[in-house]
């Protein structure tokens, strides 16, 4: 078994599907920026049972590097335990005894849904960098097709964080009759200059890796793919996901065990970032990172709708907004802005955390309380 990272960490047809289910649309799927995908597959997982009148369905939408495995153990097909495992389950904040919960892998992703590591039927090799530009609205358009297929006309709730929160907003604006409750966590109405800046530097790191090879690295041997570029991108992203105070408190100027930074060794925080970079490179795809980063940079609920204020004013769902107190990437002012511009929003809930943007994962109990209250709301 090679210890070297694979050229791609993508799930590929022939791999163990684990708990994934699939919907394939064998017809062109039109894209916002023009053109289309000749066909599209969406991978998803479900928990709980859909009520006969389909009134108990909850859609959970993952962030940049998440996937459909929101709950459940690690095992064949799933390298890790679900990213919201404690939150989704029997008696959990998203209670699967009561709700039918659906979590799809996003369009452009690398865990079963069509993305740059997929090979279109009429092609000999994966899309790579030829994968067409896709937007948050395209991601939602594919999720709408999944809802149709599942027989869910109107979601009891749509819940998402970060890039998932972008999709919640697009659902609530573009498909307002299909969303009763929207839970929007750690996001804003449009990408900010700093978010674009962080994403663009990460994208440059991947493209600057000679092993990226213009996006055609899928046949490369383990260790010969763009894992260094992807790992650097993840490191930059990870710094932005945590708070300055937390890094200072956790790592300070500590040396990595057994290493002497003054003599070529690493500080502990350097080792930490390298660890997280390499971990991602083993389960993710560099081209997906590019495609989704670009989609996030284009995030703007006001595009073609007369601006964000006009767009947000059309929302009819019962909206709950939450943010992390120390989030420097999606700071609270962005959630306050959403709260002011969405007529159906209740007061912004602030989760106290030192963990920055990652608070949505670290503070699972506090975030879970916000979600369970939102799903119990009778205002919808
Ligand atoms: N050197 C190397 N590795 C180190 C280290 C060091 N000095 N210090 C800690 N680690 C490793 C630990 O061994 C542990 O490994 P494991 O995950 O294999 O068990 C890991 O770092 C723990 O990470 P940490 O960030 O400390 O955990 P946390 O509980 O604070 O946060 C997560 C948990 C899931 C939020 C975090 O690990 C993570 O993955 N963050 C990124 C998630 C993400 O994508 N967020 C943004 C989405 S937009």
What's a concise summary of this model?
By secondary structure, the protein is an alpha/beta fold. It has eleven helices and twelve strands.
Task: Outline the fold blueprint.
Elements: E1 21-25, E2 29-30, E3 36-37, E4 40-47, E5 57-61, E6 88-89, E7 94-95, E8 100-104, H1 136-150, E9 157-161, H2 163-174, E10 181-185, H3 193-208, H4 227-241, H5 244-250, H6 268-281, H7 286-297, H8 308-312, E11 318-324, H9 332-341, E12 349-351, H10 359-362, H11 364-376
The structure holds coenzyme A.
Coenzyme A (COA) is lined by residues 63-65, 162, 241, 256, 268, 271-272, 275, 357-358, 361-362.
Can you describe what's shown?
The chain has 380 residues and is α/β, with parallel strands linked by helices. It has 11 helices and 12 strands. It has helices at residues 136-150, 163-174, 193-208, 227-241, 244-250, 268-281, 286-297, 308-312, 332-341, 359-362, 364-376; strands at 21-25, 29-30, 36-37, 40-47, 57-61, 88-89, 94-95, 100-104, 157-161, 181-185, 318-324, 349-351. The strands form 3 sheets. An 8-stranded mixed β-sheet has the order 1-4-8-5-9-10-11-12, sandwiched between helices. Strands 2-3 form a two-stranded antiparallel ribbon. The chain has a two-stranded parallel sheet with strand order 6-7. α4 crosses α6. The longest helix has 16 residues, at 193-208. The structure holds coenzyme A. The site of coenzyme A (COA) has 14 residues, from α6 and α10. Coenzyme A binds at residues 63-65, 162, 241, 256, 268, 271-272, 275, 357-358, 361-362.
């Amino acid at each position: 078994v090679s210890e070297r990272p694979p050229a791609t960490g993508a799930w590929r047809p022939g791999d163990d599907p684990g708990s994934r289910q699939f919907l394939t649309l064998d017809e062109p799927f039109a894209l916002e920026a023009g053109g289309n995908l000749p066909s599209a597959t969406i991978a998803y997982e479900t928990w709980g049972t859909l009520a006969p009148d389909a009134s108990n369905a909850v859609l959970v939408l993952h962030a940049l590097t998440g996937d459909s495995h929101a709950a459940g153990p690690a095992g064949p097909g799933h390298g890790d335990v679900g990213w919201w495992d404690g939150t989704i389950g029997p008696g959990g904040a998203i209670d699967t005894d009561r709700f039918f919960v659906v979590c799809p892998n996003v369009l452009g992703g690398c865990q079963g849904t069509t993305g740059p590591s997929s090979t279109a039927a009429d092609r000999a090799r994966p899309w790579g960098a030829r994968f067409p530009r896709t937007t948050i609205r395209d991601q939602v358009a594919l999720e709408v097709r999944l809802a149709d297929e599942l027989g869910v006309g109107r979601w009891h709730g749509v819940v998402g964080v970060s890039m998932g929160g972008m999709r919640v907003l697009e659902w609530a604006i573009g498909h307002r009759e299909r969303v009763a409750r929207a839970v929007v966590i750690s996001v804003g109405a449009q990408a900010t200059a700093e978010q674009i800046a962080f994403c663009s530097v990460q994208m440059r790191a991947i493209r600057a890796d000679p092993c990226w090879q213009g996006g055609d690295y899928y046949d490369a041997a383990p260790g010969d793919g763009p894992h260094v570029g992807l790992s650097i991108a993840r490191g930059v992203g990870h710094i932005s996901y945590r708070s300055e105070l937390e890094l200072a408190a956790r790592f300070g100027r500590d040396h990595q065990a057994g290493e002497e930074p003054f003599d070529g060794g690493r500080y502990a925080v350097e080792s930490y970032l390298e660890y997280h970079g390499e971990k991602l490179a083993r389960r993710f795809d560099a081209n997906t990172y590019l495609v989704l980063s670009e989609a996030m940079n284009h995030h703007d609920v006001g595009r073609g709708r007369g601006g964000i204020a006009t767009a947000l004013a059309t929302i009819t769902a019962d909206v709950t907004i939450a943010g992390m107190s120390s989030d420097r990437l999606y700071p609270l002012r962005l959630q306050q802005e959403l709260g002011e511009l969405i007529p159906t929003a209740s007061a912004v809930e602030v989760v106290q955390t030192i963990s920055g943007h990652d608070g949505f994962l670290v503070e699972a109990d506090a975030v879970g309380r916000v979600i369970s209250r939102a799903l119990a709301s009778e205002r919808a």
